[in-house]
Amino acid sequence: MSNRIESTRALMTHGITAMVVHQNSETLASLKSALERQGVSILQADSRARAIQMLGGQNPAPLVFTDTELPDGTWADILAEAERAAQPVNVIVVARVVDTRFYLKTIETGAFDSIAPPFVATDLEYVVRSALDNVAARRGVRARNGGTGTDRRLWTVTKKPVLRCLMGVKIQSDQ
Q: Residue 14: its pLDDT value, please?
C-alpha cells in the first residue's frame, strides 16, 4: 500500500496530466473545463490518429478521457491503443447521457470507468483520484519489474472502476 501512495505522490509532484480526445464536443469541452478547475493539465487530441501519436511516446499521459465517437474511430480504438502504450494508461469513456448498457460494455471491454454529465466536482475528483492511484500502482509494478511488462494479477485486481454513477446514485465498489 505504501508503494501505491508513493507512486501516486510521484505523479502528483509532477502534476496531473490527462489527455482529452474529442472533436468539437460540448460534453468534452465542459469536462475539460472541470478538469482544469481541479488543476489537471490537459493534452488535447482531436482524432484517433492524434491520440495514437500521443500515446506512442515513452511516457504517455496516465489518464485518457475519450469521447464515444471520433472522426476516425471510437472509444474502443482509443482503449486498444492505450493498452499498447509504453506505460500503463487508464481510459475513461465520456458518454453524452447515462446509459447503463453502454456503461457495462465499456467496463467489460477494459475501460477504467465511464462517466456522463453533469460533471460534479466531488464525483469527478474521485474518479480522477481513483484512476490515478490505479495507474500509479501499475506503473510502479512495471518499474519494479525493470520496465518489462506488468504483473497481470495486479492488473486483474486493480484495473476495475471504483465509482459508479448510474442514474445519479453512487455505488462504491468493495475496493
A: 53
Alpha-carbon gap, residue 107 to 89, rounded angstroms: 15
The pTM for the full model equals 0.77
Give strand pairing partners of 113. Answer: 92
CB-CB contact of 62 with 89 (8 Å): yes
| In 53-168, beta strands by DSSP E | 63-67, 69-70, 73-74, 90-94, 113-115, 163-166
Q: In the predicted model, what is the mean pLDDT of the chain?
A: 81
Options 3.40.50.2300, 1.10.8.50, 3.40.50.970, 3.40.250.10; CATH for 2-172 is: 3.40.50.2300
Domain boundaries, the chain: 2-172
- Sign of CA pseudo-dihedral 37, 90, 67, 101: negative
* CB-based contact 15:41 (threshold 8 Å): yes
What does the pLDDT look like over 41-72, one tens digit per residue?
999 999 999 999 999 999 999 999 999 999 99
Cα separation of 164 and 142, whole Å?
Answer: 28
